[in-house]
UniProtKB/TrEMBL annotation:
Name recorded for this polypeptide: Coiled-coil domain-containing 33
A single Gene Ontology CC term: peroxisome
Key words of the record: Coiled coil
Coiled coil (UniProt feature): 161-272
Upper classification of the organism: Eukaryota, Metazoa, Spiralia, Lophotrochozoa, Platyhelminthes
Length: 325
């Protein structure tokens, strides 16, 4: 009460309440201020927690976007390599065709070589009975024509075979390199998929934990709000009891004034008309008005609806503190 200043007692004289009731009202207002301060601190803490959760969620979203960009770039590389690897069946088909062609050429050359050898042997057998001089000349001519006819063809064929074999070796080497590259990329893709799955699982667990924490905070807030509502209802019931008590005091004061007026009227009538001194109750007087009003405390708790409605409204208009509460 010292915080209200030195003039609080003079201010209370104009209000039809007692010192005890004013102190009770002040205690109620202080409790209300403490409740509001506790609610303010609770909501500040909740705002801080939600801000931390929002920052953590933004960081997780940035990580997810970065991982999605990496996954997209790796998928583009895989598509390029898949296009290159799609050429492998064509290359294998070309190699098989060239191998078949080489086999056919080898068989053809072998057949031609056998035919030429057989022709040479037959010609040699026909001319073997000739004379030595006649035999030497055809043999030399035959050898020169033979060397002139067969050597260029054999050289071209061998060159073609060597070129085809070298091309086949190069194609096999290219196919092996592409197979190794595809295997490595598939392995890397599997590792990346496993890594992404673990990261997504961890993010899901963190999100579930944050949701559980949020639900727990909401339950705590609901419990505190229910508790505050109970306290407020109790304070409201006590306030109603105080108002009922004040109404009873007011009714007692009115009854006392009515008794006083009736006694004065009886005294005036006694002065006008003298009574027999033997009559009992002729000079009846009540000393209720001499006692202060707060001594008539009445019952501690009065059920609602027992007092007059108009008296209650007039009392509420005369005490603005209850309206502000």
């Amino acid at each position: 009460m010292n915080t209200l200043g030195p003039g609080w007692e003079e201010a209370l004289r104009d209000i039809p309440v007692t010192r005890k009731e004013a102190l009770n009202l002040l205690v109620i207002m202080k409790k209300k201020l403490l409740r509001a301060a506790s609610e303010l601190t609770f909501y500040k803490e909740r705002i801080t927690i939600l801000q931390d959760q929002l920052i953590h969620q933004k960081r997780n979203e940035e990580k997810l976007i970065r991982l999605q960009a990496e996954f997209k770039s790796q998928s583009l590389d895989i598509d390029k390599l898949a296009k290159k690897s799609s050429r492998i069946p064509l290359l294998e088909k070309t190699v098989k065709q060239q191998e078949e062609l080489i086999c056919r050429l080898e068989t053809l050359l072998e057949h031609q070589r056998k035919q030429k050898i057989n022709a040479n042997l037959s010609n040699y057998a026909v001319n073997i009975n000739r004379l030595d001089n006649d035999l030497l000349e055809p043999i030399t001519n035959y050898s020169t024509t033979n060397s002139h006819n067969f050597n260029p063809t054999d050289y071209i064929t061998s060159t073609t075979l060597r070129n085809l074999s070298s091309e086949n070796d190069q194609l096999r080497h290219t196919i092996n390199e592409l197979n190794r590259t595809v295997c490595n990329l598939a392995k890397q893709q599997d590792e990346n998929n496993a890594y992404h799955q673990t990261i997504e699982q961890r993010y899901r667990e963190e999100i579930d934990a944050l949701k559980e924490q949020q639900n727990r905070l909401e339950e705590e807030a609901k419990y505190k709000n229910r508790r505050f509502d109970q306290i407020e209802n109790e304070n409201y019931r006590t306030m109603l009891a105080d108002t009922e008590r004040l109404e009873l005091y007011k009714l007692l004061d009115n009854a006392e004034l009515r008794i006083k007026t009736l006694e004065e009227e009886l005294e005036r009538q006694e002065v006008r008309v003298p009574r027999n001194p033997n009559d009992v109750g002729a000079s009846r007087k009540s000393h209720l008005f001499k006692e202060p009003a707060w001594k008539y405390s009445g019952p501690s708790k009065v059920p609602l609806g027992t007092s007059d409605i108009y008296t209650r409204k007039s009392l509420e208009k005369s005490i603005p503190e209850y309206e502000s509460y």
